[in-house]
Amino acid sequence: MNRGNLPDLDDIVAASKRIEGVATKTPLVESPALSTRFGRKIYLKLECFQPIRVFKIRGAYNKISQLSAKNIVAVSSGNHGMAVAYSSRLLGKKCTVILPETAVQEKVNTIIEYGAEAIKYGKYTVDRDAKAKEIVSKTGATLVHPFNDADIIAGQGTCGLEIVSQLDDFDSVIVPVGGGGLISGISIAIKSLKSDAKVYGVEPQGAAKLQAALKAGKIVTFDSPKSIADGLIPSAVGDLTLEACRKYVDGVYSVTDDEILSAMKLLVREAHIFPEPSGSAPAAVLLSNREVEKLGERVVLVISGGNVSLDLLAKTING
Amino acid sequence: MNRGNLPDLDDIVAASKRIEGVATKTPLVESPALSTRFGRKIYLKLECFQPIRVFKIRGAYNKISQLSAKNIVAVSSGNHGMAVAYSSRLLGKKCTVILPETAVQEKVNTIIEYGAEAIKYGKYTVDRDAKAKEIVSKTGATLVHPFNDADIIAGQGTCGLEIVSQLDDFDSVIVPVGGGGLISGISIAIKSLKSDAKVYGVEPQGAAKLQAALKAGKIVTFDSPKSIADGLIPSAVGDLTLEACRKYVDGVYSVTDDEILSAMKLLVREAHIFPEPSGSAPAAVLLSNREVEKLGERVVLVISGGNVSLDLLAKTING
User: Fold this and answer.
1) Fewest 10 Å CB contacts: which of A233, B100, B101, B294?
2) How large is the ipTM?
3) A-B interface: how many C-beta pairs under 8 angstroms?
4) Which fold has domain A68-143?
5) Does the B9-55+149-318 domain belong in CATH 3.40.50.1100?
């Protein structure tokens, strides 16, 4: 697979033109309630307001719109699969998504609705990767990786472009980290345009693969990454995303599942939005962080997605 | 108060430039699940993804950005108040919102968060209108009407401009009707650009003020309009909105509160969005309408807002 080299600002600007009219330039709003609570301006970049309610459409459409293949395959815990299915449908391509048994049912349903074939397969990511390779070699399909790909990273970077265009000044941005595609793209865009702003990542304590990789200086694979944040538990970052994070990311926080759930409750009750657990992780940093001053006076939280299971949402409201 | 004349397409295009970067060009997506269920393509225009989670920001910002007054007053059941408070904050103006005792608490909280003064006052709209006039005469503030105003209608019309730009072809659009500002603006835009498309309104059975006015040929005032859809219960339409609806609207449906709640459940479960009752009313037409063929093969539902009370949302998920 040709994963390409790390994209630069020009690639991200080109991606933003490619995805225009497909991805939404999502709102960036101050939450006065959160600003008051945390004693600094808190802004929310509402990727949960994308057409598929998650940022992944940026990268997937940027990638797939450049492919000549008629068949597309993705391995996904849900959101990437939705993005690939949705983009394939718009571009008239056939799509297969290979999912873990534990995928959020609402996401599986949506993938099927978008006309893709959804296959629940195997216990581990390696099994699903093998299945994907089998399909690729049988059908000549193109595998679209969820994060370790220059076009995917460039697409996700358009979120960073927008933040810089929407907000005159800010001190830091906090970005959820799964495989690192979103934070790679955002950090490349922001460090290119506003080098004094800090970019921080946040991962679940049970899946701190970026922190492990940064410390080891190489990719570290987790046998059983675990978190309520189903979008943040790939077993490892990629070599491209690790390279971007080493160059451009200022630090990575860990948060517990309890902190993520408390953050989700806070966002539902006080910011009036309905994020999924992954999208709540940046607010969990504010709740848990004892060095909140480090974040500065104007902090942007990237609310990466809103594909929350209805059961969990009901519990969050009632609890 | 100078309510102006009915805006035309040029006014709506001018409004779209004025609100750029403040209001969002919201996604227009097909819901494959709803398309399957209703045997025709169903598209959702997601105004619940605006920065304040309701279309009202379009009209309010278009209006207030043209005012020289430093003090702004609004009489509102919630959403208009949020839009006026949010726009006033962005434009550095002082804002007072007069609300009914029954306003949804989440909306009242948001108005206060945006820095406006929120006054709960009186049992009836006439009481609140009187209070507003008192404030205007005391302070020189400008009263911003929620719908019967050319700049408000032009702002809401930008939603119609976007629908035409986002969808190559469609047969009909269904729009919730409160005072008629949104449907007036949308119908002016659509009939100017795509005259073969039909524009239908939907009102609660307990507040069918547009249908009454169209039938009587003049404004009909309801003593106690009633519905779970708290955004659709002003006591009457305005003379400007009545004029627009007479000219450009092809029909108006009534739906019951039970149908609205069923529609809300359908949208939450099958379209994966969280609309408020008012924003669910267009889907209620599909659920209740025995002449659904009349709507054609490609139907756009305007999901006007998503400021739902958490209690009601939890009930909808659990019920």
Assistant:
1) B101
2) 0.95
3) 69
4) Rossmann fold (3.40.50)
5) yes
